[in-house]
Amino acid sequence: MESLRVKAINDLSTQSYQPEQDGSARITDFYGENVFNLKTARAFLSDEAYKSLSGSVKGGKRIDRAVANQIAAGLLQWAEGKGVTHYTHWFQPLTGSSAEKHDSFFTIKGDGTSIEQFDGDALIQQEPDASSFPSGGLRATFEARGYTAWDPSSPPFIMEIEAGKTLCIPTIFVSYTGETLDYKAPLLKSLEAMNKAAVEVCNYFDKNVSRVNATLGWEQEYFVVDEALYNARPDLVMSGRTVFGHAPAKGQQLEDHYFGSIPERIYAFMRDYEDEAYRLGIPLKTRHNEVAPSQFECAPIFEEVSLAVDHNLLLMDLMDRVARRHKLRALLHEKPFAGINGNGKHNNWSMATDTGVNLLAPGKTPKTNLMFLTFFVNTIKAVHDYSDVLRASIASSGNDHRLGANEAPPAIISVFIGQYLTKVLEDIKQRVGNKFDEQDEAILKLDLHRSIPELLLDNTDRNRTSPFAFTGNKFEFRAVGSSANCANAMTTLNTIMAETLKKFKKEVDALVEKGEKKEIAIMHVIREYIVSSEKVLFEGNNYSEEWEKEAAKRGLPNVKTTPLALDSLLTHKAKQLFEGNNVLNHIELEARHEIELEKYVKKVQIEARIMGELCTSHILPPAIKYQNTLIENIRGLKEIGLKESTYSSQRLILEKISEHISQISEQVSRMIEARKKANAIKDAREKAIASCDHVKEPYFDKIRYNVDKLELLIDDSEWLLPKYREILFLR
Ligand code: ADP
Ligand code: MG
């Protein structure tokens, strides 16, 4: 029988690559048509309802029940007009993907008449059966209830799946006792904390600022592979990454894929998911090839963080569904292929005021320069003081494979700011001892307004190796994994920023109280922050071994594995940080710690199982078959009396194959033993550490090494798993 691998390869040439959309329409004609944003809402709501909704969207104001009924009615009218039959509360549980439970508008009244109905209650609250979502022990089974609550800050949208259309209401997800069970609620709370702290600091410079929001522009990296080849790789299907596979003769060394022309079949897929994304109001802007073969990236125009997070999650879902329609698969795992670039999701982050100022953009006048400098230095200080929680925010088993390997930042959190700003900070620092005085107001000018814009554009984006880089008017957090919900990283970033700005304000106020002039007091604290956080600044090559040594000397943490990286969530410092800013209380923090550990353990367990299974069902059978062919060949040559030199090379291959076969059998049985032992451990942290140190670390690479060697030795026509060169280069 033809193997799945052979069939997949043969079928490839018969694929057709037509996009579903003809692509002739202007994007602006249909952009956002499936979103109930304020502009759309205006036509469906009374003045009162509209005012209330808009107050909630823009200023976080509460909507009362009666008005909610009106909004629900408007939503129903809009949705029905578009052929929608069902609605769902859409939420972001800690599993990482989004969740939905669909209900129809259809209902039967007491007198038997059927109507379509959607009221304020249905809009505001729903009770999905929460017991199967991770809760980290927050919910005992007897009260396995959680509920979703409408988040008016994010607009409802219509999801089209085949012919079905569903109205999705963005919600937060909380337990019956009020603890948060999702990524969204803490994100919203962190934004509130950051807003409050940032507005107070902004008011030193501009009294008109009354709101500060964080902005996010993510860059989503992904691989696209043929579906049939994917299906012939049970490891990809089960764990999202290939646990085996020898490096192809041609990898990414030629760098000919980066920014090369996009293959037609992929292009058709891209156009179709982009089309759906535009209808959902996701402002996609760029698409291009990435460095690795079959790797791509897309990025939208940045938006306010909470909306950007929703949009990223939606897009990941869209990509998956549209890829299937094209008989392709989008791989969002952080490291689908060993030895080849992984997938990241750079999070470009900044803060913007309601007066339209980007707080990380160097301004034009001295006064706003000082404001820029304040927020710039506070960010560095925040990352310095809380690099451990920032590291925890991006920890996952997938990202462990990526960080520190091929073209990905290491697990060391450092900040890159570029030559020019390094010099600016150095200048400020040099004023050691010399007090800042009136004359020093010159420093506030720092010539920033003249030279920064040009210089920044030129200089700041050169270093692509830093996990946290200043790129002219925003910071780019590059250590975020491609499959992650950005909310985790963003919540942490907003919270550490809130905390640092609060301290900053306190220190400046204390100096002012002692009679210091405000600007001078600010400069003093800025200088202090530069000195106390400079060890987190690094301009060199983050991928180098020297940096690892240097970072160790500086005392910067370098925690390579998830179980240990997560420890920083339980420190006194972390509890004070999250609790003090009303983002997560210590019970929620502990629950999250446990959930992340559980996720880690499950991933390692799945990979270990699929490895074991593949060895016995896919790797060893063809290897043994080929071993027998060689044995027969040698025996035959011997029998007819040929001298040993005629079969010595066969013998050599046979010896190698036999050695790899026995290595694999032995290592796999040991791994299974270790896995069972780890599995029996009760304590979540101990179990995760055992999964890492006793299952993954000692066995995964060893088994893989032997399997990959066999791949090169065995008759190609017998090998069952599609090879890297096939998955990555055939389409
Ligand atoms: P690169 O690949 O060079 O890093 P891209 O243009 O692909 O750059 O991505 C940059 C991302 O940064 C885009 O999503 C862009 O909208 C976003 N961005 C630009 N300015 C800001 C800002 N002030 N806040 C947040 N994100 C921003
Ligand atoms: Mg980038």
Q: Which geometry do the CA atoms define?
A: globular
Helices, by number, come to: 26
CATH superfamily of the largest domain: Glutamine synthetase/guanido kinase, catalytic domain
Helical percentage: 40-55%
Number of strands: 17
Overall number of structural domains:
3
Task: Give the N-to-C terminal Cα separation.
Answer: 23 Å
Describe the main β-sheet briefly.
9 strands, mixed
CATH architecture of the largest domain: 2-Layer Sandwich
CATH topology of the largest domain: Creatine Kinase, Chain A, domain 2
Proportion of β residues?
Answer: 5-15%
Average pLDDT taken over every residue: 89
**Assembly context of the chains:** single chain
Class from helix and strand fractions: alpha+beta
Q: List bound small molecules.
A: adenosine-5'-diphosphate, magnesium ion
CATH class of the largest domain: Alpha Beta
* Uncertain ranges: 447-455
> What's the alpha carbon Rg, rounded to whole Å?
28 Å
